[in-house]
Amino acid sequence: MVGELNIFEEDFWAISKTLKRLLDTSNSKCVILMDKAGQVISSVGDTGWFDLNTLSTLIAANMAAFNEIAQSLGEKEFSTIQQQGQNINLYVKGIEDKVILAVLYDSKVSFNLVKARVKYAAEEISQIMKRIFAKLEGKKKPAEIIDEDFAKEAEDELDKLFGG
Amino acid sequence: MALINYVTKEVNCKIVYYGPGLSGKTTNIKYIYEHLSPDSKGKLVSLATEKERTLFFDFLPLDLGTIKGFKTRFHIYTTPGQVFYSASRKLILKNVDGLVFVADSQIERMDENIESLEDMIENLKIYNLKVDLSNGVPIVFQYNKRDLPNIAPVSELQKALNRWDAPYFEAIAIKGINVFETLKEILKLVIRRLSR
Questions:
Q1: At residue A10, does pLDDT exceed 90?
Q2: How far is the alpha carbon of B185 from chain A, nearest alpha carbon, in Å?
Q3: Which parts of chain B have pLDDT scores under 50?
Q4: Contact A68/B195, CB-based, under 8 Å?
Q5: Which residues 76-135 of A are in CB contact (within 8 Å) with B?
Q6: Among partner residues A57, A68, A159, which is closest to B75 by beta-carbon distance?
Q7: B110-126 helix and B154-161 helix, angle to the nearest 10 degrees
Q8: pLDDT band at A52, cuts 50/70/90?
Q9: Would the ipTM clear 0.90, i.e. be above it?
Q10: Rounded CA separation A12/B3 (Å)
């Protein structure tokens, strides 16, 4: 069924703390956590020099495509992707088949350092995500914010945007 | 799966345009991109072949603005329609919140429409999803290319495709006719579905 991934305060700050520590200890430029559809859950570091939503969508699509490749080769998954540019490198890791962690770092920074720090952060995020999904389990009512009033207001905005 | 962040105050939903090859999915999304105000849209990404056939997907982020304090954003995707891109279509459906099925109204394309719809239903099953207006993924049908000479009557298209009695629009996407109406309807259905 259609579900929602609801991120509340306590979990969000736990995620942000982990991402910030990863950013600092790996000398990265920025760290992005997204869901499997590429929707950004949280990001830290400098993300002002690119389009965050577009980049996350493309990373998630790439990850999904690589997992298909893995399966067609009889592998369960390719859990990480590493891309090297002249100035920027990208390291991506899937976590628990639920979220994706992406790290952009300077090509002068050691890959092994980034890899080790990401592994540590991924374990923490995995625990947080398990907590979030456990909370959502059995929860029939979607997020309280999306209520009748929200729907009405959104419909008015849609009429304004597209003509009503 | 809609993503709702209570701290950054954001609601994100995913919409997918599905349908057979050359039915006009990319034409829809391009028209939307070209005619929306710059404040409401992000960059249009098209992963296409040299001949402008969709290879993986098109992607357009659309901002609705702030609703009850929450920045509300829709991520709009098209799938590649050509039969041999089945794996890509399957991937794009992951976490989908709403569907637009763009059918080609031409009589000779009826089989492709049906085949594509069945392909969509099968691909949704992989993610334990089903089309259902009240308790599943909402859908809107768009019967495109209504300006062409050899087209099937809407009643036939409805009978062959729309088993859910979902909303439908007759469209000429290349001229923008009923393009916004189709999108508006699916966005309303997705919001209503979330609000229940």
A1: no
A2: 9
A3: none
A4: no
A5: none
A6: A57
A7: 30
A8: very high
A9: no
A10: 13
> Nearest Cβ partner of A12 from B7, B36, B191?
B7
Cα–Cα nearest to A97, from A74, A63, A120:
A63
Q: Decide: helix, strand or coil at residue B132.
A: coil
pLDDT at A140: 47
How confident is the model at residue A1, as a pLDDT? Answer: 38
- CB-CB: which of B65, B88, B128 is closest to A157? B65
CA distance A23 to A44: 7
Q: How far is CA A10 from CA A7, A15, A24, A141, B164, in A?
A: 9, 9, 21, 20, 41
Q: Which residues contact B17 (CB under 8 A, 6 or more apart)?
A: B25, B28, B29, B76, B77, B78, B79, B99, B100, B102
First-to-final CA distance of chain A: 30
**CA distance linking residue A145 with residue B72, whole number of Å:** 12
- What is the C-alpha to C-alpha distance for residues B114 and B163, in angstroms, rounded to an integer? 11
